[in-house]
Amino acid sequence: MRAAGLPWRPYVFRSYYDTMQMYAEGKGLISHNYSQTFMGHSDIESVYSFKKSQLPQDLVENMREAYARVAELLGTGKRATVSKDEMLATFNRRFLKMSYWTDEEVDSLGDLSDIEESKLRELLDRKSMQKLGLNGNSQRVVPMSEVKKFIEEGWEYISTLPSGEAIIRLPTAKS
Predict the structure, then answer these.
(1) Residue 157's closest CA among 165, 145, 147, 172?
(2) For 70-104, how does the pLDDT look when each residue is reduced to its tens digit (9 = 90+)?
(3) 54-59: long-range contacts (C-beta < 8 A, 24 or more apart)?
(4) Sheet harboring 156-160: ordered strands across?
(5) pLDDT tens track for 9-50
(6) Could you tell me the end-to-end alpha-carbon distance of the chain, in angstroms, rounded to an integer?
(7) Is-above-0.90 flag for pTM?
(8) Which of 127, 143, 148, 161 holds its CA 20 to 30 A away from the CA of 23?
(9) What angle do CA 103, 14, 128 make, to 5 degrees?
(10) If you compute the radius of gyration of the chain from its CA atoms, what whole number of angstroms results?
């Protein structure tokens, strides 16, 4: 890569390839299993299909045809088939999915290419807070038996409730 004058690390290309495979899946050009196989990922299904023995020739041909359908997307040259809006929507979908948004939640947002960066950041933060069990605030009620674990994870102890539960909160930023 350096000899070709490319300054990027190889992972940049793997990330690009993965994103474009996801885009191709969304367009129905290739199956998820084929994409995962081409990325070198393995799951239990690949153990039972791809890695058991010689693949049937018709399956190999089908995989080649699928790859040929997405080959143009995988290149880095200019092409008219992917617009800026489509690419932005694909990246926004990817960020949301990496933040544990479900397909239904992502689809409910409408046109993902219209989401501004500040709105995307807000959506990602909201899901992170939900994942921590914080629905709109920074405090949480937990059983006393779990307080030590939360404090070790960086939470702050606030108080004990009459019910025997404890109030904890996310640490506040110190200046």
Answers:
(1) 147
(2) 887 776 655 556 677 888 888 888 888 888 888 88
(3) none
(4) 139-143, 165-169, 156-160
(5) 777 778 888 888 888 888 888 888 888 888 877 665 655 665
(6) 44
(7) no
(8) 127
(9) 40
(10) 23
